[in-house]
Amino acid sequence: MIRVELPPHLRGLARISGEVQLEIPGRATPRSVLDALEARYPMLRGAIRDHVTQERRPFLRFFACGEDLSHEHLDTPLPEAVTSGKEPLLIVGAIAGG
After folding, report:
1. Total-model pTM
2. Which residues contact residue 24 at a Cβ distance below 8 angstroms, ignoring those fewer than 6 apart?
3. Range(s) of the domain holding residue 59
4. pLDDT at residue 95 tops 80
């Protein structure tokens, strides 16, 4: 069971509160988690990753176990603490300004 925490604007879009728990068949990677998340909540398609390129949207970041996974390849296996359900995968809205 993979635990995923979404930023407030994505929770609102998907009409969920709190953490999402997903069963991921096979190897858990950011791509497989996003595939499962978008399958369960179709309204999130295009909000986390681009429809065409499937790349992460610029103002969203992925974190797990205190590490920024945002620039890792989407097929990189997630840490064991995430795949075991001990730690969540965090999808965080980045802050920009000037």
Report:
1. 0.90
2. 2, 32, 33, 36, 83
3. 2-93
4. no
